[in-house]
Amino acid sequence: MSSKENHQDPKVVAKAKSILQLFLVFLLGGIGVSTYSLWHHVAINSNALTQGSFCNVSSYINCDAVALSRYSEFLGYPVAAWALVFYGALLCVGLTLFFLPKDEEDRRNPLRAHLLVLSVVGMLPTLALAALSFLSLKLVCLMCIASYVINTILAILAWRLNQSNSETITSHIIPPKSSWTMYFVTAAVFATAPIVMNGLIGAKGMDSTTLKTLLYQHFTAKPATLQTEGFPSLGNPDAKITVVEYSDFQCPYCAKAATVIPQIILGNAQNVRLISKQYPLDPTCNTGIPGRGHAQACRAAKAATCVFKFKGNEAYYSMEKRLFENQATLSSNSIRDFALQEGLNPEELDECMKDQDVHNSIVKQVEEGSAAGVTGTPSIFINGRKLENGSSAEVLKAALKRYLESSL
Length: 408
Description:
Elements: H1 3-8, H2 10-45, H3 63-67, E1 73-74, E2 77-78, H4 79-98, H5 108-137, H6 142-161, H7 180-191, H8 193-201, H9 208-220, E3 233-235, E4 241-247, H10 252-257, H11 261-266, E5 272-278, H12 297-311, H13 313-325, H14 332-341, H15 346-354, H16 356-372, E6 379-382, E7 385-387, H17 393-406
Parallel strand pairs: 4-5
Antiparallel strand pairs: 1-2, 3-5, 4-6, 6-7
């Protein structure tokens, strides 16, 4: 049977159409995953998220940390946006092939071949990003895995679609001139996605002059001596770069910062560590606060300290998440309940909350922070130097990049 006859065989044609339909279904899934990933990237990097995403499951399974890592962008452009451009090219070829008239059979093989070429080329960054995520960042991103699986399935389906192709694949690596305009327009449309996302979210990047000024002030400042041992921490204990954050559990800006700062640290966990310290804006623990202040902040700080004392780092950051997510309704009872949910028994929690050493520890953290220049929360220090606006993902990432490049 000749190739042409084979292409016209009803069973072969029906099978090819089914494969192409399945290809387009997975392709639309990839576009959906990439669109969400792009929205997520823009939102978390512009501090627009008020709480962690649904795929921030743990310190290991964490899309937020991956989205804030240095590998989330390529040439200053979000990886998710590159993926959209890639899917846009596949969509052009796939839809053209799907709606191709029966009397244009001579165009079917080149389109199938080009679909395979694009799919195989797309596997190269897929494998590279998977290796970086698992081996370098040591993080699992659920949305990333979804895109890896989709890209693999697309390549397999494109190969299946080409099994009956009588022409060589290599002759279609470069698309025909007649389709260049279509690819250009599609790429341009999908490339505007980050701009659209920024507009929808309302994020505004910091101008370069302001960012340079903040970094200059930071790197020329005299470092303060801050205690770093015996406090909740994330990252490599032996890291040369230490970020210290002073925070208040009733501070709304601290709650927002909690969706960003730990994730940035996890994205650089081999080189950076985070030390979390208490600075409650509550006169019960902070004599510098006039009036009532944040009435539950000191109690929350003590409860979190007790959780860390008995259950360690992981439980502390779980407690932190509970407190920030329920910040608007914090009460004595809810704070106690959250601590008990982290595994403390009632007796040890009550005894710890009354422990004068716990109270004194928080007072000392406040005094240390005030002496170092803390005037509000959150306050960020890197290797003892205060970083103004350091809770901004853009500023903190830029400062850490400078540290990592210069090994200061």
